[in-house]
Design a protein that fits this description.
Elements lengths: L1 H27 L5 H25 L12 H4 L5
Length: about 80
């Protein structure tokens, strides 16, 4: 359950950072570095979430489904 909470919080942080970046871009008119900081934070959160998910998959805490091809379905008919 804690994994889902961390993932949802990361997504909320990514969306909030994206929204604040848009807000600063429109209102500051390029006069400040707040847009750059907001979008850098978004990229950092996205990379961190990706690394966290890969770590959980590597430790077999979560199991991806629908990603690996089905060997029976992907093999071509033999002649």
């Amino acid at each position: 359950m804690w994994i889902k909470i961390i993932i949802v919080l990361a997504f909320i942080g990514i969306i909030a950072s994206l929204g604040s970046g848009l807000y600063y871009l429109v209102n500051d008119k390029g006069d400040s570095r707040r847009t750059l900081r907001a979008l850098t934070l978004r990229i950092g959160l996205s990379v961190g979430l990706f690394a966290f998910l890969m770590l959980l998959i590597g430790l077999d805490v979560i199991e991806p489904h629908g990603v690996l091809p089905n060997p029976a379905a992907s093999s071509a008919p033999q002649q």
